[in-house]
Amino acid sequence: MKESKVILKNKEGLHARPAAMFVRAANQYESDITIIRDGEEVNGKSIIGIMSLGIFSGQEIILRAEGKDEDKAIEGMVEFVENQLN
To answer: Which residues of 7-35 are buried (b: 16+ CB within 10 A; e: fewer)?
Structure first.
């Protein structure tokens, strides 16, 4: 299992369209992807789960990857949140 903390920088937070983009990115990996905010965990491959967290710009989240490609998955998802989720 690999984890990394990231600050969400996009102005919309993780709602509707950005959440759908996150799910598409997460589905590229075999590993389970989890998003944790304030101790609440959701499946990072579930748009409903992600939207239920109500993540806004500037909030810290923890990304967790667990599975065969967890190293690649955590690296890719952190890069996605920091640089592509705009």
So the answer is: ebebeebbbeebbebbbebbeebebbbbb
Active site residue 15: yes
CATH superfamily membership of 2-84: HPr-like (3.30.1340.10)
Instruction: Tell me which of 12, 15, 51, 56 is the catalytic residue.
Output: 15
pLDDT tens column, 47-56: 999 999 999 9
Closest CA to 29 of 75, 86, 60, 85: 75
How far apart (Å, rounded) are the C-alpha atoms in residues 10 and 81? 8
Report if pTM > 0.85: yes
Q: How confident is residue 4, by pLDDT bands cut at 50, 70 and 90? A: very high
Angle at CA 52, nearest 5°, toward 49 and 67? Answer: 30
Residue 73: is its pLDDT beyond 80? Answer: yes
